[in-house]
Amino acid sequence: VQLVESGGGLVQPGGSLRLSCAASGFTFSSYAMSWHRQRPGKERELVAAMTSPDGVINYVNSVKGRFTISRDNAKNTVYLQMNSLKPEDTAVYYCYAPISRLGVWGQGTQVTVSS
Fold it and tell me: Smallest Cα–Cα separation from 73: which of 4, 27, 7, 5?
């Protein structure tokens, strides 16, 4: 079982990034997927989650209206479109699959929002 994130980088405030998380080794379409982030000096927090197959979505309040989670079950990939980025969105972003008792995390991708 593996999750591999990509798409992070340095962006100016107000800019956009699209993160991808490619999954392998499990039946992707059977699991809810989520994005989490860990900001400097903070605990890891849930950013967005999407169930499957019904596609129920939840966001943390601080990203509502700016971030969009989506998934392509044919490609075993979950995405996080991030618009109107703010310096406080700077974090390492992780995707997560609730597989087995402890779940599985990706390695993370750094997002830095700075002018």
Answer: 27
Q: Across the strands, what pairs with 33?
A: 50
Q: For residues 46 and 33, what is the distance between their CA atoms, to the nearest angstrom?
A: 11
**Burial of 60 per CB tally in 10 Å (0-12, 13-18, 19+):** middle
Cα(67)–Cα(110) distance, integer angstroms: 16
Rounded Cα gap, residues 104 and 72, in angstroms: 19
Look at residue 62 in the predicted model and tell me its pLDDT.
Answer: 96
Does the structure show a pLDDT above 90 at 100? no
Whether residue 36 contacts residue 94, with contact meaning beta carbons closer than 8 Å, is answered with yes
